[in-house]
Amino acid sequence: ADFDAKKKRKVAEIYQALNSDPIDVAALRRMAISKGGLLTDEIRCKVWPKLLSVNTDDLPPLPGKELREDSKDYQQVLLDVRRSLRRFPPGMPDDQREVLQEELIDIILHVLKRNPQLHYYQGYHDIVVTFLLVVGDRLATALVEKLSTHHLRDFMDPTMDNTKQILNYLMPIIDQVNPEVHDFMQSAEVGTIFGLSWLITWFGHVLSDFRHVVRLYDFFLACHPLMPIYFAAVIVLHREQEVLDCECDMASVHHLLSQIPQDLPYESLISKAGDVFLQFPPSKLTKEAAQAAQAERTAASTFKDFELASVQQRPDTVLRQRFRERLRGEERLRGEERTKSILTKPRTNRFVKLAVMGLTVALGAAALAVVKSALEWAPKFELQIFP
């Protein structure tokens, strides 16, 4: 009864944010991050477009079949989609699944044709099929296009250089939270390749329960684009004892970590990932992850976080827009001073700090702080709304 009451209350809060004028996107982000996420696919159909700043009143027309004749990627996409049987609900009739697979091919080719700077990669279809199953083909096309030109852009470069750069954040995150696990993995020379499929499919390829996949998508869509690598890190940290009990060699540790457990405590890991992100944001890890010059070339490092657009869409903010315009310069200066102060403080015991933060993100208390973190930790970001 208590669970049902909380669920009803959260649904009411989500619809209140959706019905605000203007829509309270910041509140929707908090709902997407906090315990349970967006709860139903019906709600996701309404909220995911808001999180990605997609106008549902101006959706692109459905792609035509001529795409297949002109696309250099068609054969590879076709092979990958044919191999994607397990990504569809068990028990789905073959004819229904085959229709969805055709739609999946068309969505991918449509996005690639409209954005020739993007390059298809194996695993991309695992992300696209998630959107297709939740929101249908036409809306999925618009959402995937926006996602591909922002959150996923580094994965769609001509080379894997920027993808490797993002993977390079994994070990510094682990080191900050648990140096013992980090040192063991370094001694085993396991590297980070075990997490590649996690990262580039947003875990869609490796998790068998669709409920867990969409819950993670709620979380990732509401956060900084590097959040998936933080979630990957907390999975490794959650398996601390298994890792330390493993033979300290590359093959053994890689085999263990590449077999992702299906019974993970997703809500507590989401909370932990948010807490770790707040405690050790990307700006503090860049030097360890790679040379700053290379990091600056990744979309994740230059990403104008969608929350920055959301700040301007909150009803109270819109009403006070003129007042904020006058104060913006002053607030930015204060933010820079605050950030400088935080980043120069001596590091206290990491375990004590994380314990104190506890389950703040899952409970919603720090959810908005996570989404605002791009502004908080990198004041060079400009406040702007995506076109």
Overview in brief:
This is TBC1 domain family member 20. The chain has helices at residues 2-19, 25-33, 41-51, 66-70, 74-82, 94-114, 124-135, 137-148, 161-167, 170-177, 179-188, 196-200, 210-221, 227-238, 240-245, 250-258, 266-279, 282-289, 292-295, 299-302, 306-311, 315-319, 321-343, 350-357, 360-363, 367-371, 373-377. With 387 residues, it is mainly alpha-helical.
Describe this structure in words.
- Among the domains are: 64-145, Helicase, Ruva Protein, domain 3 (Orthogonal Bundle), CATH 1.10.8.1310; 160-312, Ypt/Rab-GAP domain of gyp1p, domain 3 (Cyclin A, domain 1), CATH 1.10.472.80.
- It has helices at residues 2-19, 25-33, 41-51, 66-70, 74-82, 94-114, 124-135, 137-148, 161-167, 170-177, 179-188, 196-200, 210-221, 227-238, 240-245, 250-258, 266-279, 282-289, 292-295, 299-302, 306-311, 315-319, 321-343, 350-357, 360-363, 367-371, 373-377.
- The model is unreliable at 304-326, 338-349, 351-360 and 374-387 (pLDDT under 50).
- α10 (170-177) crosses α14 and α14 (227-238) crosses α17.
- The longest helix is centred in the C-terminal third of the chain and has 23 residues, at 321-343.
- The chain is mostly helical.
